[in-house]
Specification:
Number of helices: 22
Strand content: under 5%
Structural class: mainly alpha
Low-confidence stretches: 464-469
Radius of gyration: 22 Å
Mean pLDDT: 89
Shape: globular
Distance between the termini: 11 Å
């Protein structure tokens, strides 16, 4: 028994060693006051970039193997995820500078100004440069996240280092919360713990999840937490109205959280026993949503202007996306003279149409979780802007959908999106002579097409039948 237990711990220990390398390679404390927003700031050469890719692939491989070979108790799985996250609190946010924007927006709110009306560059001359592209922009987030920003700035007295670590801690807590909910929702759906443990490990020990939510401290984990918490309240406690109100906190944190809400609202409607119950649910949900929006926006004014601006955010500052790839191709084909604006104009209606067709599937009884994952993927391929943390959005819903294909495809999307950093950075500069069009020609099919094809070729290892440790 002791030898078997020791072997079970080998994979988690190797993963811990890999995560502990990161604060040594990308240390936060010596650099937290510097604008090092690109991985190449720490790994400038092609060889170092390939080493980073090798570390990523090793962690992904160990994570996938652990999910199908390690039979630990849920508490131990959560504990190990916490251990993996702790060293990452002291890693510089190597793939994004959004967390510096969070810091500045929190300080603006505490100063008595509105982060929806004032940009960091207007009031924060000392730290504004750290926010990069966000320095001249007002907040793109909902009032729930604005409240989190203000609270952290207040508790840390506006200190930069402590606030950055605070946002990383929020990210780690969101990793743990979403992981627990994935476990519970999978167990509720299957009445089995082996699949629930597998899904929990695929999320909790996942390098993409930990990199994006702890190292870079993105608020997408909080968005996903609200969505899954609402789903759990409905599935576990049969409280559809409360579940819907909790889910609505997701788009009030970041507008991308709105995507799954219609799918689960339709699923709830289908579950209600009669027309009277459905009409009551719809009416109370509309009233509740209005009250919730009013209360959360109360300190900041009308939500209308913010909503309009956030709706267009995905179509601004494009790059690394299929739509950007189409634009580059269009520039090289004689006779095609569409501007960027004309290319972008196709994205939103295409997303709405396809998502509408997916919503019809939920009306007909198909899985709301599965269709939510698919709708998020459709968003990724129809938006002009793509950032690697967007690949997190479909992942929890693919895990709890019960579909092996969706689980593998969503996992592979995390792998390819993380590796795309090397393609668009190191490979583009050293092998493609800095050519963005060539990088998109290689990077877009690699990032978005491979995850759809490779699941048909991957054989998942059989689950370990042993009892949880």
């Amino acid at each position: 028994m002791g030898k078997k237990l020791g072997k079970s711990f080998l994979i988690p220990l190797f993963m811990l060693a890999g995560y502990c390398l990161l604060p040594l390679w990308f240390p936060l404390i010596p650099h937290y006051q510097q604008d090092v927003t690109d991985l190449r700031g720490f790994a400038p050469s092609l060889l170092s970039g390939l080493a980073y890719a090798g570390l990523l692939m090793t962690l992904f491989g160990l994570n996938w193997l652990a999910a199908h070979r390690v039979a630990f108790s849920p508490r131990l799985i959560l504990l190990l995820s916490c251990l993996y996250g702790l060293p990452l609190l002291f890693v510089y946010p190597i793939n994004a500078n959004d967390v510096f924007g969070y810091f500045l927006q929190g300080r603006i709110t505490l100063s008595g100004a509105s982060p929806y009306a004032v940009s960091p560059a207007e009031v924060e001359t000392e730290y504004a440069a750290l926010a990069g592209e966000w320095a001249d922009s007002v907040s793109p987030y909902g009032p729930v996240w604005t409240g989190v920003e203000a609270f952290l700035s207040w508790t840390t007295n506006g200190d930069l280092l402590r606030t950055l670590v605070g946002f990383k801690l929020v990210g780690l807590l969101s990793v743990l919360g979403v992981g627990w909910l994935i476990f519970e929702l999978t167990r509720l759906a299957t009445q089995r713990e082996d699949g629930a443990r597998r899904n929990a490990i695929l999320w909790l020990w996942n390098p993409a999840v930990l990199f994006m939510l702890v190292i870079d401290a993105h608020n997408d984990g909080v968005v996903l937490f609200w969505l899954l918490l609402g789903l759990w309240v409905w599935k576990k406690h049969d409280l559809p109205l409360l579940a819907t109100m909790i889910m609505l906190l997701a788009p009030l944190t970041k507008l991308s959280g709105i995507v799954p809400v219609p799918f689960f609202a339709v699923a709830i409607l289908r579950s209600l026993p009669n027309l009277s119950a459905r009409l009551r649910y719809v009416g109370l949900s509309i009233v509740g949503a209005i009250i919730l929006i009013f209360l959360t926006f109360l300190p900041f004014g009308s939500p209308r202007d913010l909503f309009v601006r956030l709706l267009s955010e995905s179509q601004a500052g494009g790059g690394f996306s299929p739509l950007a790839f189409v634009h580059f191709i269009g520039e090289t084909v004689p006779g095609i003279e569409l501007s960027i604006g004309e290319w972008v104009a196709w994205g939103t209606p295409l997303f709405v149409i396809i998502s509408g067709l997916l919503l019809i599937g939920v009306f007909l009884g198909q899985s709301a979780s599965q269709k939510s994952a698919e709708s998020y993927y459709v968003y990724l391929i129809t938006a002009f802007k793509f950032r690697i943390w967007y690949a997190l959005w479909p992942f929890p819903f693919a895990l709890i959908s019960g579909s092996p294909y969706h689980r593998r495809a969503a996992y592979l999307l995390l792998v390819t999106s993380q590796l795309s950093v090397i393609l668009y950075g190191h490979v583009r500069i050293y092998l493609f002579n800095g050519n963005h069009a060539v990088a998109h020609l290689v990077g877009v099919p690699f990032t978005f097409l491979l995850p759809l094809i490779l699941p048909f070729l991957i054989k998942t290892p059989k689950m370990t039948p042993s009892k949880p440790t």
